[in-house]
Structure formats: structure tokens, C-alpha cells
What we know:
- By secondary structure, this protein is of the alpha+beta class.
- The protein is built from four helices and seven strands, in the order βααααββββββ.
- It has a five-stranded antiparallel β-sheet.
- A hairpin with a 5-residue loop joins strand 6 and strand 7.
- Helix 2 packs antiparallel against helix 3.
- It is globular and about 50 Å long.
- The chain starts with 6 loop residues before the first strand and ends in an 11-residue tail after the last strand.
Amino acid sequence: MNARPSIKLLTMSTTALLAVSIVGCSAGNGQVDLPTSQPPTAPPLTTKVPSSKTSDIKAAIAEVYTDFWPVSAEAAKAPAAQARKLLAPYVAGEFLDEQVQKIGTYQAENQEPYGQPTVHIMRVTLGPGNTASLHDCLDFSKAGLADRRTHQLIPGTLGSSRTHVAADFKRGSDGRWRLTSVMQLEEPCSPASSQQ
């Protein structure tokens, strides 16, 4: 049996809205540029995937993950139905329900994402069937929580520049890859080890 690394579900209080995996709004006017296209799809997985197709699949997963952050920041500021619609192309299953629920909780507490996290993808691994995982050294040093009324940073909420994140994905029947979980590993990472 393989030993799994020590993990914890991401919590908003410790890593700036990471319980809903939300952070990232552009500086200035608070508007976020959302991707104009649907999340990328990948060819079906087979027992032996040619290396060029493997690269395409991994690139599609990395793109969904990268695009997820600004979309989730926009969702964090939206009513529940709109938040669900924004997140649905990027997040699946119970994880989507959890995201929408936690958005409501933090809105009720007058909190919203602040700043922009920087993605440093370390690796993407294809799993059995239509599953995959991704490790990221996410930089939250310029991302935290803001007061929804003033849009000012709440002191002490900026995150770490070495937030080691593990994300799981599943490919839906529509061919799109979606996140099914995002967790923070206990041990910090180094952006220098990224292979993006």
C-alpha cells in the first residue's frame, strides 16, 4: 500500500478562499477577464496513449486548471445560481456543490477574493480511465481576502508563495476535464521545480 502525503482540504481562512479554491481578481477595476472559449476537450483515453496525444491531454488539463482561478474569483462575487453556471465547465460533482455553498457562506461574512494567485504547474499525471491529477506550486503571496464592502485587503490574509496544491480531475461524458477536488499538501513547494 502506498503512503499518501499529508494533506488537508484547503480552507479559506488559511489560504485566502481556497476552501472554494477561489482567489484572483485583476487589479484596478476588480473585473476579471473570463476565457472566451469552453474548456478544452481531449481525445478519448485508450490503454496505450500515443505520446503526442498524452501531451495534448495534459495540456488540456493544465489549461482547465489555469483558467479555473479567474473564473472562480468571478463566481465568488456572483449570486449562487450564476456562480454555479460559471463554475460548471470547470468543476464537477460534489465539489461543485461545496464551492457554491462556501461562496454563499463567505458572501454572508462580507468577504471576497483579493489579488491574483500565480500558477506554477509542476506535473500532470493521467490516471486510470478518465481521471488525472495535477500538482501546482501556487503563489498566493499577492492573494488574500478583501472586505466585500470596501474591497480592501483584510490584514493577515495573504497566502504563501509556496502553496503545494494537488488537484484531481475527471473527464465528463461531454469530453471536458473538470476538477473534482483541490487540496493543499502540508509540505511547501518550490516554484523553481515547476515544469509549466
